[in-house]
Amino acid sequence: MQREDVTDLIVLQKIKKKLTWTQLAEVIGHSKEWSTAALLGQMTLTEAQAKAIGAALDLPEEAIALLQVTPYKGSLPTAVPTDPLIYRFYELISVYGTTFKALIHEEFGDGIMSAIDFNMDLTREPDPKGDRVRIVMSGKFLPYKTY
Amino acid sequence: MQREDVTDLIVLQKIKKKLTWTQLAEVIGHSKEWSTAALLGQMTLTEAQAKAIGAALDLPEEAIALLQVTPYKGSLPTAVPTDPLIYRFYELISVYGTTFKALIHEEFGDGIMSAIDFNMDLTREPDPKGDRVRIVMSGKFLPYKTY
Amino acid sequence: MQREDVTDLIVLQKIKKKLTWTQLAEVIGHSKEWSTAALLGQMTLTEAQAKAIGAALDLPEEAIALLQVTPYKGSLPTAVPTDPLIYRFYELISVYGTTFKALIHEEFGDGIMSAIDFNMDLTREPDPKGDRVRIVMSGKFLPYKTY
Amino acid sequence: MQREDVTDLIVLQKIKKKLTWTQLAEVIGHSKEWSTAALLGQMTLTEAQAKAIGAALDLPEEAIALLQVTPYKGSLPTAVPTDPLIYRFYELISVYGTTFKALIHEEFGDGIMSAIDFNMDLTREPDPKGDRVRIVMSGKFLPYKTY
Amino acid sequence: MQREDVTDLIVLQKIKKKLTWTQLAEVIGHSKEWSTAALLGQMTLTEAQAKAIGAALDLPEEAIALLQVTPYKGSLPTAVPTDPLIYRFYELISVYGTTFKALIHEEFGDGIMSAIDFNMDLTREPDPKGDRVRIVMSGKFLPYKTY
Amino acid sequence: MQREDVTDLIVLQKIKKKLTWTQLAEVIGHSKEWSTAALLGQMTLTEAQAKAIGAALDLPEEAIALLQVTPYKGSLPTAVPTDPLIYRFYELISVYGTTFKALIHEEFGDGIMSAIDFNMDLTREPDPKGDRVRIVMSGKFLPYKTY
Amino acid sequence: MQREDVTDLIVLQKIKKKLTWTQLAEVIGHSKEWSTAALLGQMTLTEAQAKAIGAALDLPEEAIALLQVTPYKGSLPTAVPTDPLIYRFYELISVYGTTFKALIHEEFGDGIMSAIDFNMDLTREPDPKGDRVRIVMSGKFLPYKTY
Amino acid sequence: MQREDVTDLIVLQKIKKKLTWTQLAEVIGHSKEWSTAALLGQMTLTEAQAKAIGAALDLPEEAIALLQVTPYKGSLPTAVPTDPLIYRFYELISVYGTTFKALIHEEFGDGIMSAIDFNMDLTREPDPKGDRVRIVMSGKFLPYKTY
Amino acid sequence: MQREDVTDLIVLQKIKKKLTWTQLAEVIGHSKEWSTAALLGQMTLTEAQAKAIGAALDLPEEAIALLQVTPYKGSLPTAVPTDPLIYRFYELISVYGTTFKALIHEEFGDGIMSAIDFNMDLTREPDPKGDRVRIVMSGKFLPYKTY
Amino acid sequence: MQREDVTDLIVLQKIKKKLTWTQLAEVIGHSKEWSTAALLGQMTLTEAQAKAIGAALDLPEEAIALLQVTPYKGSLPTAVPTDPLIYRFYELISVYGTTFKALIHEEFGDGIMSAIDFNMDLTREPDPKGDRVRIVMSGKFLPYKTY
């Protein structure tokens, strides 16, 4: 059993038990964004979180153990994602990549927005012309160290 | 002269004239996010906008004409970006890609967040532990049509 | 069992039961184009549709459950398809890609043809010099939002 | 001067002279789809067509000569297109590729839809919920020869 | 069981039964070139042909069924083949590709040699300096349709 | 000036002087297949051949010198060719690659068909259903040496 | 003039003036590691630093301006570097990549070593069996934020 | 059983037995850096070391045998690593690659830092602003031989 | 069972029986270079050789049969090898590729060194400064045929 | 002027002055193998060598300066070489890669053959069945350091 097998098992058990990602996030005790990423093999659970999820989803001991090991991250099978929903995010980087760079450097100087000291919130934005997906990302600005 | 040459010229003239992207956005009359993307060859200017920018940056006639032509979009030289600032956004998709997918489908059903009927806002988020980059993205949810 | 295994199973059961894609589409209650895409792992079935297909093809419970989960889309094993029938469509984009772009922008301005709010119809076009494949595609034009 | 330089020149002269692709197609005497593809370096003009276009766009002799040479086809700079409008067509093949294959084989047997004995028509489809792009493709079915 | 498994099984059974591709082609009733391609998963057998091969090679029912389904074509694991015998053919295209193009266009005008309405014959050409492989390819010329 | 520039120059001068590849082959004194490949930068001319071509096409001294240098071979800009005429040859290898391998090994044992001690002949094959391109390839079989 | 042209110019002027990277670092006032990276287009100089380098290397005004703009980072022409010296570093990541991961997670938990809040020192390590290259890297550990 | 299966088994047994890489390194008798790399399939153990590890982790005989065979090295599934911790090292090479090259050549002349006659040490560097990862690499300089 | 499985089995049995490649070559009756390549799936054994190896390594009948089938050659999992020992050979081609070409053409004219009519010998070259690997390659020169 | 321009200039001047690589090697005072590699941009010349070559080939001062700078190595435009002569060497690694690995490890243990402390000799090997290219490679064996 490897970490990917645990992910497959989680997805299947979640369907069978008719649980939502939001409900599983409550079991973990963190936001739905962080928790879903963790369950999909991108974050590391504590022993207590892993056991709680194991109980909620009837996972075997080995799976519970693997949930506590830092996974090899990267959730996509190809460098350019084929799934349309995920591709749109890739497209935003393709189209706006140099814009992100220009505006962050203009505001902060040389450095990056951290993808580690990072959090985000994904919500439904009601709109009469059709509801919208609203994502708020917040990452610490890290200036390039000079030395 | 091709559209990329116009971009190079814009960047150079902007430096010489010590203008900011925010100031150029005011010339265009749209947000700094959309305007910078347009100047970097990803959006299309109206004739009035192109002339205003041409005047602000001393661009030749040919450049002003090309700014009104819809460009071949995609601002990055490689499929996986090498620039660290831009790569962090790619990494977010790599790490959170399946999470975006899971949560948007849970909330909205099968479909995507539009990257066309889309807007965003990039601001500085003051924080005692180090200021943060805050990006608010809003894209219309488009459900897959069944037929 | 993963979604790909369900697709393999569907293809095999369809052969054994000598059913056509058109017949399966009738079971689902949508066009043959949308229904075939759904069965091949690109669209999401409702519970009723999944059960009807499960009954028609003797699928196990787990498969019926997976048919109701939005799949990770993308039906091709390589970025440039090797199958000659599918390659011809890729070639059309390679040859006509910039033409699509030029003509749609000329008619509609900057924006795209939606691949989500999209439908198509594939029929036989009788022709004395050899029958033809006729495909009618219709996608909503989405203008780039300015902001 | 190479064929790509002729394309660049055509695009620039077309802007300066404020001509549309549809108008240029009338000069050539074919549909806007075939004519635009030809001008963008994907089809071959006759001597008369090349001279007419040369006159309409003030092209030099060398360009008029090159328009009559069959070009090395392929209009896109990367295997997976980055431009959002063109990508949506690529996505349709990615999502519907195996569906095209299944349905054409079901209707016609083993073979392909020709991309050579092919024509298409791109029009605006008025729709109260937003106008649509309508593309009708027609390609001769070519059965695999057995021998 | 998928089509690739059928190919593996055919290769193994052929070794065990000490049959040649030429003998199997006689069972199918077509040339050795077409028949071998079919057995290697690139062409579609009729029910009668599939049953005859099934009998000759002791294949299970499921394999016989799959032989009648049009396969996803493409017999090579990588875009540039590593096997030296197959690579030499790739090299011929790499070296002579633009020559094929120049000479066919010179003789026939713009169009292609069909790979569908195509046949070939591979024979031994006795030669005192070392026997040669002789391959005669014949493909219908398809002119680009203008419209 | 590099070898590619000589190729561009040859193509342009050939158009201006309205010469065919067959006529240029007569100047060189070899088949149209070998000669065209040589002019397109894939084979090496002797001093006499280079001078004759130089005279026929008004090439400068430097170009005549470069025609006598063995070129870096490979005539295609991408590993998988985008041009439809050339792609069909690539497709033949993709579809028939393992068939070539099976049949040549069956007839000759382990080894390859040489792409160096190789010649070919491309002709028009009249056919009432549409003329065909006929290509006869002949390459020496080279058995793998055991040692 | 683009940033890459400035890099080429710096390399050439440095040769002509027989200056070392260490001497140029003294002009900049930072370590030789940071300074060389900056001159090779990977870091951003202040106005004073840019002017000092401009004076030392006789750079034109435009180059001095560009040295103050944050560059698009990434110094290598291919994803897998071909230069043997640089490849050895790539090889270290290939061989030791999972080791870095295992040991840093064991010591620090889930997170990364920053490549932004980072410094390094490259020195000669005398050794009787052959001098060694000694590189000390120091990057801030950034723990994954949970939220 | 292949070498990768041994790696998977080692990782799983290590979790179950709650052992650290550092403890396993003590079993092997080398540094934690070399030992972890060896256990992760990048170095070769002696018979004594393999048996000791086998005893510590309850590995089967076959696994112990495979630990003594030099493995096919390379620990990453993709050329550009997706895991953020490992990617940062790749980024360092991307950003600092030409700097490494410039400074090592300036100090040592043409040659490389060996990745074979190489050792490294990874430690925690306490820092009031946040602890740091400190890596000391030492590789023998190998000058290019002239001959 | 496929040819790769036979290779895996050979490697495992060789370890268990503590045999060397040189000893296995003696069983085959050819050089260690050719024999090892054959056992690793790159050359074809005769029936007698296959049976002898089968006896030496306790291989099943099916494996012995597969050893007599010409394999699909290419022993490496990636186009650019990750294993450091094998990479060094790739690097030699990267660095010396154009040198091989220049010197062979200078000595022999246009043509290639055969990789089929080829043999090599790999030995230890004692050297007081450290023993060396000595590889003597010998391939027949094949001149390009003109026609 | 960059290093590649110097290579182009060297090749052109060499043709004009009808010099051989062997003669140029005598000017440099090293073997034809090392010297050709150096002139083709893969090794570094001393000041005296660069000046001697500059005089022999009438190179400008700037070129002579650049010949003394260690170049960014790698002489091939693509990862898999298209030129048939160079490809054969790539094919040898593809076919014999795992054989090199097996035999060197068997003889020397874990380590590599150096491509830096390396020399080679390329000669004509007369043979009544056709002369052969003989290449003797000698590289120092470097054992993996344990620590």
TrEMBL record, chains A, B, C, D, E, F, G, H, I, J:
- Known EC number: 4.2.1.104
Entries under InterPro entries matching the protein: Cyanase, Cyanate_lyase_C, Cyanate_lyase_C_sf, CYNS_N, Lambda_DNA-bd_dom_sf
Q: Which Pfam families match?
A: Cyanate_lyase, CYNS_N
- Lineage, top-rank taxon, reads Bacteria
Under the heading Gene3D superfamilies, the entry gives: Cyanate lyase, C-terminal domain, lambda repressor-like DNA-binding domains
**What general EC class does the enzyme of this chain belong to?**
lyase
The Cyanate lyase C-terminal domain, residue ranges = 75-147
- Per the Swiss-Prot or TrEMBL record, the active site comprises 88, 91, 114
The keyword Plastid appears for this protein: no
Q: What does it catalyze? A: cyanate + hydrogencarbonate + 3 H(+) = NH4(+) + 2 CO2
Answer whether the UniProt record assigns the keyword Ligase to this protein. Answer: no
Q: Which family does it belong to?
A: Belongs to the cyanase family.
Mind telling me which PANTHER family this protein's record contains? CYANATE HYDRATASE
Task: Supply the HAMAP family for this chain.
Answer: Cyanate_hydrat
Protein name, as recorded: Cyanate hydratase
Q: Species name for this entry?
A: Ralstonia holmesii
